[in-house]
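Cross-posting from the modeling subforum.

Setting up a comparison between two proteins and wanted a second pair of eyes on the formatting. Protein 1 (sequence, then structure tokens):
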Amino acid sequence: MNSRQRRGVILLLLSVLCAFGVFAGVLSVISDVNSKVGPETTAYRLKEDVPPYQALDAGQFEKISMPKRWLSATAVTDLDEVAGKIAVTSLRKGSLLQSDMIVKRPELKPGQQEIAIMIDAATGVAGKITPGSTVNIYATFDGQEQGDPAVSKLIVANANVIDVGRLTALEPSDEDKDRLSEAVPITFALNTLDAQRVAYAESFASHVRLALVAPGSDTTLRPGERTYSLARDK
């Protein structure tokens, strides 16, 4: 084989290698395009803003289709996942629903019942009480007779919060017309006796307050600690 033939063979081999390179590049481009336009999967987008700790329902979301490669591993692709769930933070309109945006709503245990009361935002732990929180419920009662001291009572210790509603403006009372107040409906899981205590306090106490209990705290009460009056500090 002379030099001209050898050059011809080398050029032929280079041409074949270039052809394979071009072919591989075309296949890569086709694969990339296919991955961008398909396969598609289902996702869900918020149709409205959802405040934190609100129960979710299917009507708050719209079904969309999008390339699977664009979805994160936490994207919700089955709307049944929102059943019995609440938002853990503010959800914005147009956002894709992610599994880490929602948690299961706390459930009642055997022997418990739900009871909801309005808690003044100024006397509660505004913004810090969430479903699953543990709180102590305090109520302040005026003296029964003129001159009797007011007393504060721990109505329920270690109450379990299972739902927190939306902030609501309250109508001022006749005695305090200049004061505008807001309240939040908070739902507790309580046994029958504690539910009666809370209902009584809401009806007859001058104020009802919540105290957030830190996880792992020892809130065991000794005799006489449930009731407090200013005279005890003298």
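Protein 2 (same layout):
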Amino acid sequence: MWRRTWVWIAFVLVHAVVIWFGFLDNRGSSWDVSELYRWWADRTFAGQVVPGITEDWIYPPLAQLPILLVGLLHRAIDYTFAWGLVVTALDAAAFAVLVGRGRSRGRMLAAWLWLAAILALGGVGMYRLDAVTVPFAVAGSLWLVGRPWLGSALLAVATWIKVWPAALLAAAVIAVRRRLAIVGGAAVVSAAVVIAVLLAGGGAHLFGFVGDQTSRGLQVEAPVSSVYVLLALAGVPGARIYYDAEIITFQVAGPSIDTVIIVMTPVLMIGMLALAAVGALKAWRGASFVALFPPLAAALVLGFIVLNKVGSPQYMTWLIAPVVVALAIDRRRWLRPAVLTLVILALTQLIFPVYYDWILTLWPAAVWLLVTRNILLVALFVWVVVRLARVPVRRPVRQSVSE
């Protein structure tokens, strides 16, 4: 009883503190919400445009739902504050699923880890669309075995808000024995989204977010970009950080940059397919859901980050769901990588918004902070891939024929 009471008290305090972070430093960590998301909502309510329906958009169609919901609340309260309240409400629903009656040590540890992760990542983890997807991802993953249709549907909803939960869906299709239920739940949600967009006249823009991502350059925070950031720090001719006004982000330039940009998309695709193939082989050889899903889900999510040419700070939010679920399932094996995840999240908050301007001006200590974070990301990725490769399987027993 008291364990559950204290964790819920901590939940309220942590979310209150992180909501407050969004109002510090001229709302540096919540700029996307207070300016960009609010602008999208205002334009939609004014009947000017509907992103994803009347024009291409960088996000899937369901990303409009939280933006417009907060826009409705904005008529009574500040948009940024309303966003924090909506994220807190969604987190509370998934947190209740995770904690339950507070009797499971693994789930309680996972709950405390989730709160520590929210605090470690700070405002950038709260004030982005990614924050909306995390509670869907956590609850959906926890329900994959007991309620596969519902679990799959929640993951599909999250995927149509921000693409990354597709990694969890792929892991579910591979690791859960009731695959038809997993595919069915996702298919129902996807069909509903597609039909709604088509009826709204947005068929031409349904998958506009896909082309936008594949055509981007190397974002400064992406792991692969660390090479170019170090080259720029060393003063190598042509290596630099520049601002791309079209997509409102900082990118890197340098030797053979165009080749690297072209190569990174197939590298990401091949890497994800390879991880899925390893997971499928393990499943075919009889690996259990408990043993297979945590490392496969974490590997696919980390692959989405480590092999990506885009590396926004909010991408670190993605790490929370697979690590929380892994701790709930197998707390002893996943405690150390969970601690490493907290370190990565804390370093990310230092990178943005604290020392971001220093990185852009190539201050050595700030640059090495970014590089260290990315090295730890790669290290965590390697650990998870090794863990995936070592997932035990149930080898078929060969029956001998007595003579």
